[in-house]
Automatic annotation (TrEMBL):
Residues 1-23 form the signal peptide. GO terms for biological process: polysaccharide catabolic process. SUPFAM superfamilies: Pectin lyase-like. Keywords: Carbohydrate metabolism, Polysaccharide degradation, Repeat, Signal. The keyword Nucleotide-binding does not apply. This is Right-handed parallel beta-helix repeat-containing protein.
Length: 503
């Protein structure tokens, strides 16, 4: 990394944080379409931040200006070797102009891939790739090296920040660029604080737990570094990843929540869970679960939730729609106490739109449920891209719970692998009560980058009382070939999938 601008290079223009290098080619007050390119500063000394450092492998420049590249990695509870290797992350913003992004590696790579992107990609040399971006986007660069195998760089090319709060607002906790340490189960929303703002170049070493509050915002272009927290089972065999105190961010029984812009790296468990909450907005998050077991992306066990324009990576389910969560209503003294402490809630009116999902080994991109209860209805998933296949499908369910999931629509999806569905209704399992079903499932305009016969895995009900029913599959294509029957695929189904229509 060379010549990354220091924090002092920032200035404020009309309330927005930008580099002095922004090009202004239009003159005259009030003219639209001013080109804007912002590279973010280095965070300062990372030597005391667990599992986070400057990348020694990838160097990134934007229009010739170097920007800081992070490397996140884990040391403990590594079920999979790639966790120790970790991943790399870079963030910058631009608007009203094309940008040239150069990615240079410190050693030659033998091959590479870029998913998903509409960018023009050029291999300049065996140590350099060049991208031309017309619009903001998020994508994964995978480079293969002779000695270390695959290495990954997540590129978040954002649009400019909007509504940057004032430092002088007493309801704002304004975190400037640099390292801030708040520790485990931090609740910043005290003493009148309603907004946490993370300036570009901010690293916050903390996990969060917030219960019973409303009107809260976390936003900015900084990142949460959570490598200081080991996986729950490392600390205590009685603990588990679903405990509120063991997650990256746990919000329960809250209202009117907004999460925007920031990144999360090295989370030891679920990266964001909103449980029994109302009115939740998630926009442009970068969840970078590089290899922990159980590091799900988001659990959306709430009502009126929107998740848009985010990059969600994890070694377990990227989004879980409904399931069970930690009520924190009793102390766990024995293993038997665990089941008594978890519960479910009503879930509904969820919109999951224009996100990129990167699965590494485990779980589904959309896990409809892991043994949920109560009710769940009106779920829309659209405009998303799935770039890594796992042991499950893009759309999955491990349904040993009691909830009847109603009216799920999945449309305008691009899948860069062959695993479309892994939807399984089953008997009572893993604290679920059984007896659930799925009623009303529509998949339309699904583009799969695989041959039809490769498309898999499961779409199976359990019984007449626990079926999957009223299924519509419309305009499903695999390598450009339209699929009109399960017989064209390798999807396993059974007699408890009822009322299936292909169009």
């Amino acid at each position: 990394m060379k010549n990354v601008p220091p924090r002092s290079s920032f200035r404020f223009v009309g309330g927005f944080c930008a580099l002095s290098a922004i090009a202004l080619f239009l003159t005259g007050c009030g003219q639209p379409s001013v080109p804007e390119v912002t590279v973010f500063p280095a965070p300062g000394d990372l030597s005391e931040v667990e599992g986070l450092e400057e990348s020694a492998l990838f160097d990134v420049s934007v229009n010739g200006e170097d920007t800081f590249v992070y490397r996140g990695f884990q040391k403990e509870f590594n079920k999979y070797g790639f966790a120790k290797k970790g991943g790399h992350y870079v963030n910058f913003s631009f608007a009203n102009t094309a940008v040239t992004v150069d990615v240079t590696t410190s050693k030659p790579f033998s091959s590479f891939s870029v998913k998903p992107t509409q960018a023009l990609v050029e291999r300049v040399s065996d140590t350099q790739l060049r991208f031309t971006l017309q619009d903001p986007s998020k994508f994964l660069v995978t480079a293969e090296f002779e000695e270390s195998g695959e290495n990954w760089l997540v590129v978040a090319a954002d649009g400019p920040e909007q509504e940057v709060p004032s430092k002088d607002d007493p309801s704002v906790l304004y975190l400037e660029a640099g390292v801030h340490k708040f520790g485990r189960s931090w609740d910043p929303f005290v003493d009148g604080i309603k907004t946490v703002y993370m300036e570009p170049g901010t690293v916050v070493e903390a996990t969060l737990k917030v219960v019973g509050k409303e009107g809260l915002t976390i936003k900015g272009r900084g990142l949460f570094a959570q490598g200081f927290r080991p996986h729950a089972k490392v600390e205590d065999p009685l603990q588990t990843e679903w405990l509120g105190d063991c997650m990256g961010a746990y919000f329960r029984e809250c209202k009117d929540l907004r999460f925007e812009g920031y990144a999360v790296i090295n989370c030891p468990s679920y990266q964001l869970e909103v449980a029994d909450c109302d009115r939740v907005s998630v926009e442009n998050l970068k969840l970078l679960g590089f290899g922990w077991n159980n590091n799900d992306g988001m659990h959306l066990y709430s009502r009126d939730v929107t998740v848009e324009n985010s990059f969600i990576a994890g070694n377990d389910d990227r989004i879980c729609v409904t399931g069970l969560f930690d009520s924190e209503d009793r102390e766990i003294k024995t293993v038997a106490d665990q089941k008594a402490r978890i519960k479910g809630c009503d879930v509904g009116n969820l919109v999951i739109r224009n996100n990129v999902f990167w699965g590494q080994r485990n779980g589904g991109d959309i896990m409809l449920t892991w043994n949920g209860s109560h009710t769940c209805e009106d779920v829309l998933i659209e405009g998303c891209k799935s770039i890594g296949f796992t042991n499950k499908g893009f759309l999955s369910a491990m349904h040993g719970g009691s909830v009847v999931i109603k009216d799920v629509t999945v449309r305008d999806i691009e899948i860069y692998h062959h695993r479309l569905t892994s939807v399984l209704v089953r008997d009572a399992k893993t604290w679920g009560d059984g007896g659930g079903a799925i009623d009303g499932l529509t998949l339309e305009n699904i583009q799969i980058h695989a041959e039809p016969k490769e498309v898999s895995l499961l779409l199976t009900g359990w019984s007449e009382e626990s079926p999957i029913r009223n299924v519509t599959l419309r305009n499903i294509t695999a390598n450009g070939q339209k699929i009109t029957s399960f017989d064209q695929t390798s999807i396993e189904t059974n007699e408890f999938v009822k009322n299936v229509v292909w169009e």
